[in-house]
């Protein structure tokens, strides 16, 4: 569709393109944030979209610790894609906090845990 705007840079308020914003998703995000006592909520079209958005918060040279038995798609994305962008990744048995502590270093910016894990259903 084509949208009529009053002037370049003077965009109308509201919802014009459902992938960038829509009232149904905005309501879902607001309700989830309220239920979880959060400030904001974010809804994604898939789990991998959510995971990718979180991992994209990291910069080149940052270090990430994950549980050793993450979902296969998460594992492949991290070892085949994100490491190419200079993110260092360690997969650790996170069922014991001592294991995690051994891998923390100054460059560690994120601890990512899927619990219960997939496929082994370990609880961290």
Automatic annotation (TrEMBL):
Q: Which residues form a coiled coil?
A: none
The protein's matches in InterPro entries, at most eight in alphabetical order, are given as: Cys/Met-Metab_PyrdxlP-dep_enz, PyrdxlP-dep_Trfase, PyrdxlP-dep_Trfase_major
Keywords, A to Z, come to: Pyridoxal phosphate
Q: Which Gene3D superfamilies match?
A: Type I PLP-dependent aspartate aminotransferase-like (Major domain) (3.40.640.10)
Would you tell me the Gene Ontology cellular component terms?
cytoplasm
- Any idea which GO molecular function terms this record carries? cystathionine gamma-lyase activity; cystathionine gamma-synthase activity; pyridoxal phosphate binding
Which cofactor does the UniProt annotation name? pyridoxal 5'-phosphate
Its recorded name reads Cystathionine gamma-synthase
User: In which organism is this protein found?
Assistant: Lentilactobacillus parakefiri
């Amino acid at each position: 569709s084509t949208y009529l705007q009053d002037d370049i840079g003077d965009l109308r308020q509201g919802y014009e393109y459902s992938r960038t914003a829509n009232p149904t998703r905005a309501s879902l995000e607001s309700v989830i944030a309220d239920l979880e006592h959060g400030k904001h909520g974010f809804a994604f079209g898939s789990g991998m979209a959510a995971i990718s958005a979180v991992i994209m918060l990291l910069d080149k040279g940052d270090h990430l610790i994950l549980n050793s038995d993450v979902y296969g798609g998460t594992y492949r994305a991290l070892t085949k894609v994100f490491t190419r962008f200079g993110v260092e990744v360690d997969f650790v048995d996170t069922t014991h906090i001592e294991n995690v502590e051994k891998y923390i270093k100054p460059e560690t910016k994120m601890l990512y845990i899927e619990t219960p894990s997939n496929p082994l259903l370990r609880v961290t």
